[in-house]
Design a protein that fits this description.
single chain, alpha+beta, Death Domain, Fas, Immunoglobulin-like, 5 domains, six-stranded mixed sheet, 14 helices, 29% strand, flat
Length: 685
C-alpha cells in the first residue's frame, strides 16, 4: 500500500529518501537512488519498495519512518503506517533549561503527540504548579528566591502517561543596573548573558564552553567550530571529554528562536603545544601609519574535487590458506563509502596482473585534489624493510616481492597524480617474509603531508579473522564500520577504531591497529565534494561508470510462444548474478524452465552454483542483499571473475518445456551476447 502511494514523482519516495537521510546512517547515495528509480523498468518493480529495503538493512525503525512521512505531510501514508506503530505518547518538544535576568518572564514549552485529548500538568520540584495545564508554562522570575528551580511536565491520556525531561531556571542579576528591571524579552528578542571564553588545554583534558541567553520564545543553541556546525552540540554548554588536537579551532554559538538570531563572540581553543614557526602564523601582522594590527584569515572549509576508493579482497588462494572474511568486509565498506559519496570499485580474487591493472585503472580516476585513497586491501600480505606487499591469489608457495604488489609503489603513483588525501587501509599480516631478501626500489616519496596508513595489525604481527561457522566481518572491519560515517579527521577516526579493537579480549596482545600519518590538515571522509571543470569531472565519471554498467534486462521470445526474462544484478564490480524467469507461456504448455549454458571457460563459474532455484543455493553470503531486487520464481547463476573476459560475454539460454498430455520434453535455445559487463569493460587482461 505504501508503494502505491509513494511511487510517484511528486511527493513520493524521493522526498522520503531526502527526509530519512537527515539521519546520517539512513542517507542513500546517488547510486542507490538511481538503483531505486530503475525499478520502474521492471514489470513489478517499485522504487519505494527498494528504498524501504535499503532503510531496513540500516535498522530504520517504523517509528522513524512514520516521523518522516509526517514531515512530508502525506496523511494517507501516515494512516497506512500508523496501524503498524503502537500509538503511544511521544514528547516532540522538550523544555529547555534557561538563565534569566531578574524580574523578567520565562517561558517553558512541552509538546507531545499521541492519542486525542492529551492533558498536561507542570510540576516545580515535586509540587504541582496550580493552573499549569497547557503546553506552555510562563514563570515570573521575581517570585524566585535566586536559587535554581527545577520544572517538569507530565503528559497523559487516561491512564497512560509520560514525563518530559527536567529543566531548571536560574535567575541572575544583570550587570547593567539600568536594565535590571527594564529588560523586556518580547521587545528585545534575545540577549546573551554569558559569553564563551577562550581556553588552552592539553590533550586528554575536558573542553567546556558555555553560552547563556534569555528570550521569549526560549532560545535554542547551535555550536560551531571553524564556522561549521558541531554535530549534536545544541545545548547552552558544550562539553568534549578527552580532547585531541582535532578539537582545536575557533568556536562560536548561534542563539536563535522563532523570531530572532544572535551570535556569541568567537573564541579560540588551543590544544597542546603545536610547533611554532616564524614563517607561518595564525595571524598576519600588518603595519600602516605606525599602527600595528592583526588580520585573521577566514576559516576555510576543506573540500575534495572527488572521492574515489578501490577495494580489493583476496580469498581463494591457489597455493595458500583460503580466507573467509574479505567478501563480507569489502561489501560492508563499499556500502558505507557510497553513503559518503565515494566512487567505489570493489573486486574479489585478483591475480598479480589483474591487481596491477586494477590499480592502473584506479589511478586514472585520480587528479589534483581528489581524495584518492581509499585503497583497502584484505588478504594475505607481508612487510619487509618497511615496505608492505599485497599477495595475489596466484602467488606461488614461496613468493617474493616479484610476485606481489608493493603498497609504497602505489603511493608513489598516487602522489604523482597530486591527490588531496591518500588513505591506505591494509587488512593483512605484516610478518617478515623469509623467502624474500630483496629491497625493492620504489623511488623517493614526496613530502606531501596528506598520507594516512591504517594497518589492521602491528609490524611483524598477524591479522586474524574469527572462525564462527558462518561468514562475518574480520576483526578490523568489525570495528572500522562503527566509526566510518563519523565527521572526524581520519586520524581521529582511526584512533577510535584502535581503542575499540583494544577491548576485544580474544586478540589482546596479538593484534592491534597501527596508525601512521603525516596529515597536517583536518581532512575527513565526510568532507564535501566541490568538482572542478566539467571536462575533468566528466572524464572521471565516465571512467568510473564503465566499471559499473550492468546489461539491460531483456525478454527472449521463443518459437513455442514462451517469453523468458533475462535479468542482472551486481554483487561486486567483477561478480554478476544472472537470473532467468518465464514470464509468459501458452496454456497448452504445462511445465517450462530456462537455464544458462555455454558460459565462457575463462570465468570462475562453478557449475554446481548455476541455475539454482533460490539465491541461497548459490553459496554467496551476500545473497540476501542482491536478491532483494530480483523477482520471484527465477533460476539464478553467479558469474565470477569478470576481469578475465577476453571478449564479450556470450552464453546460451536453454529452454525446456512440455505440452499437455505429453511425457517428453521439447527443447529450444537462443544465443545471447551481453557485451562486456561491469569491470570487463576496462580490459584488465
Amino acid at each position: 500500500r505504501l508503494c502505491e502511494l509513494l511511487d510517484n514523482a511528486g511527493r513520493g519516495w524521493r522526498k522520503l529518501a531526502e527526509l530519512a537521510g537527515a539521519e546520517k546512517r539512513f542517507k542513500c547515495s546517488a547510486e542507490e537512488l538511481e538503483m531505486c528509480s530503475l525499478k520502474v523498468l521492471e514489470p513489478r518493480g517499485s522504487p519505494t519498495q527498494c528504498l524501504l529495503q535499503l532503510l531496513a538493512e540500516r535498522d530504520c525503525t517504523l517509528r522513524y519512518l512514520l516521523g518522516c512521512l509526517e514531515r512530508m505531510g502525506h496523511e494517507q501514508a501516515c494512516r497506512v503506517l500508523s496501524s503498524a506503530v503502537q500509538d503511544v505518547i511521544r514528547i516532540t518538544v522538550q523544555p529547555e533549561s534557561q538563565v534569566a535576568a531578574e524580574g523578567t518572564q520565562v517561558s517553558l514549552t512541552c509538546c507531545a503527540t499521541g492519542p486525542p485529548g492529551l492533558a498536561y500538568q507542570w510540576f516545580c520540584g515535586r509540587q504541582e504548579v496550580p493552573g499549569a495545564t497547557s503546553p506552555e508554562l510562563v514563570i515570573n522570575t521575581a517570585s524566585l528566591a535566586g536559587q535554581p528551580e527545577w520544572y517538569i511536565c507530565r503528559v497523559n491520556s487516561g491512564a497512560a502517561f509520560t514525563f518530559s525531561r527536567w529543566a531548571h531556571v536560574q535567575v541572575e542579576k544583570s550587570s547593567s543596573p539600568s536594565s535590571a528591571r527594564g529588560y523586556c524579552p518580547t521587545m528585545a528578542g534575545l540577549q546573551i548573558l554569558r559569553q564563551p571564553r577562550p581556553c588552552c588545554l592539553a590533550e586528554g583534558d575536558t573542553l567546556v564552553l558555555e553560552c547563556r541567553a534569555i528570550g521569549n520564545p526560549p532560545p535554542q543553541y547551535q555550536w560551531f567550530r571553524n564556522r561549521r556546525p558541531v554535530e549534536g552540540a545544541q545545548a547552552p554548554q558544550l562539553q568534549v571529554k578527552l580532547v585531541t588536537t582535532a578539537e582545536r579551532g575557533s568556536y562560536s554559538c548561534r542563539v536563535f528562536n522563532l523570531f530572532h538570531e544572535v551570535w556569541s563572540q568567537e573564541v579560540d581553543v588551543e590544544i597542546g603545544e603545536g610547533p611554532r614557526q616564524t614563517s607561518v602564523t595564525p595571524h598576519l601582522l600588518c603595519s600602516q601609519a605606525g599602527v600595528s594590527h592583526s588580520v585573521t584569515p577566514p576559516s576555510l572549509v576543506l573540500a575534495a574535487t572527488d572521492k574515489v576508493a578501490l577495494l580489493i579482497g583476496n580469498m581463494h588462494y591457489l597455493h595458500h590458506k583460503q580466507l573467509q572474511a574479505p567478501i563480507v568486509d569489502v561489501h560492508a565498506l563499499s556500502a558505507l563509502l557510497r553513503q559518503l559519496d565515494f566512487k567505489v570499485v570493489s573486486l574479489l580474487d585478483l591475480r598479480k596482473a589483474e591487481m596491477q591493472m586494477a590499480v592502473d585503472e584506479f589511478l586514472l580516476l585520480l587528479d589534483k585534489g581528489v581524495y584518492a585513497g581509499l585503497l583497502y586491501y584484505a588478504g594475505h600480505g607481508y612487510e619487509n624493510f618497511g615496505n608492505s606487499f599485497m599477495v595475489p591469489i596466484d602467488a606461488p608457495s614461496a613468493y617474493t616481492s616479484e610476485h606481489c604488489l608493493c603498497v609504497q609503489w602505489v603511493l608513489r603513483e598516487m602522489q604523482q597524480r597530486r591527490t588531496g588525501l591518500n588513505i591506505f587501509l591494509l587488512d593483512m599480516c605484516r610478518k617478515r617474509n623469509l623467502n624474500d631478501d630483496i629491497i625493492p626500489q620504489v623511488g623517493a616519496l614526496e613530502v606531501t603531508a596528506n598520507i594516512v596508513f591504517g594497518y589492521a595489525t602491528c609490524a611483524d604481527a598477524e591479522a586474524y579473522e574469527l572462525s564462527q561457522g558462518e561468514l562475518s566481518n574480520g576483526i578490523f572491519v568489525t570495528f572500522l564500520k562503527r566509526w566510518l560515517l563519523e565527521d572526524e579527521k581520519i586520524t581521529v577516526l582511526l584512533d577510535k577504531v584502535a581503542e575499540d579493537m583494544g577491548t576485544l579480549e580474544i586478540t589482546r596482545g596479538r593484534q592491534a591497529l597501527e596508525l601512521r600519518s603525516n596529515l597536517s590538515e583536518r581532512r575527513a571522509l565526510t568532507d564535501p565534494i566541490c568538482p572542478p571543470g566539467q571536462d575533468e569531472s566528466s572524464a572521471r565519471n565516465l571512467q568510473w561508470a564503465k566499471a559499473h554498467v550492468l546489461p539491460e534486462s531483456r525478454h527472449l521470445r521463443f518459437d513455442c510462444g514462451v517469453t523468458v526474462q533475462l535479468g542482472f544484478a551486481a554483487e561486486f564490480s567483477n561478480i554478476m548474478i544472472i537470473y532467468t524467469r518465464v514470464v509468459a507461456a501458452p496454456k497448452v504448455i504445462t511445465k517450462c524452465e530456462a537455464r544458462l549454458t555455454d558460459i565462457p571457460e575463462e570465468l570462475d563459474v562453478d557449475l554446481k552454483c548455476t541455475n539454482k532455484e533460490s539465491p541461497e543455493e548459490l553459496g554467496s553470503p551476500l545473497a540476501p542483499v542482491w536478491s532483494l531486487g530480483c523477482p520471484s520464481c527465477c533460476l539464478y547463476s553467479r558469474i565470477c571473475g569478470l576481469q578475465k573476459l577476453r571478449q564479450e560475454l556470450a552464453f546460451t539460454v536453454y529452454l525446456q518445456y512440455r505440452y499437455q498430455g505429453m511425457d517428453d520434453f521439447v527443447e529450444e535455445w537462443q544465443q545471447v551476447n551481453v557485451g562486456r559487463p561491469l569491470i570487463a569493460k576496462l580490459n584488465l587482461q
